């Protein structure tokens, strides 16, 4: 599992007193940074390989300003050219949101999907999700 700590900002708090729902996709993406680095170590958009093709979020509990949030990111499934992530946001002991995201290894120059290289697949496999983890 990959872990990322987020410090909620005042500007992310809405009129209802909790973190706005539009903030959560950004936080989930922040938890994917190490995965992006596997595919594009130089962070260059010219060489970018990860393209998101689907994303879903289940809002479970409210999140508040003033307390850190932990993003937990697992690999749920690895295909030939794509992979599925399972993610959770936790504030303290509370599960606040769950997400799935599907990414494709994409070559922008050729405008086509490509097979995930074996060395990346091996790294992704180290973070496979197990039901007793979440």
TrEMBL record:
Domain of life assignment: Bacteria
Record CDD domains: 4HBT
MF annotations from Gene Ontology: fatty acyl-CoA hydrolase activity
Transmembrane regions: none
Alphabetized Pfam families for the sequence: 4HBT_2
UniProt keyword list: Hydrolase
InterPro entries listed in its UniProt record: 4-hydroxybenzoyl-CoA_TE, HotDog_dom_sf
Family: Belongs to the 4-hydroxybenzoyl-CoA thioesterase family.
This protein's name: Acyl-CoA thioesterase
């Amino acid at each position: 599992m990959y872990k990322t700590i987020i410090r909620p900002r005042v500007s992310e708090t809405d009129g209802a007193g909790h973190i706005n729902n539009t903030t959560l996709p950004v936080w989930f993406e922040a938890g994917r940074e190490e995965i992006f680095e596997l595919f594009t170590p130089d962070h260059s958009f010219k060489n970018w390989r990860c393209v998101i093709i689907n994303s879903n979020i289940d809002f479970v509990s409210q999140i508040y300003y003033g307390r850190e949030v932990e993003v937990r990111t697992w690999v749920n499934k690895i295909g030939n050219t794509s992979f599925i992530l399972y993610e959770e946001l936790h504030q303290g002991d509370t599960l606040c949101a769950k997400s799935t995201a599907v990414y494709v290894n994409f070559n922008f120059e050729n405008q086509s999907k490509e097979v995930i290289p074996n060395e990346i697949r091996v790294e992704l496999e180290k973070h496979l999700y197990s039901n007793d983890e979440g």
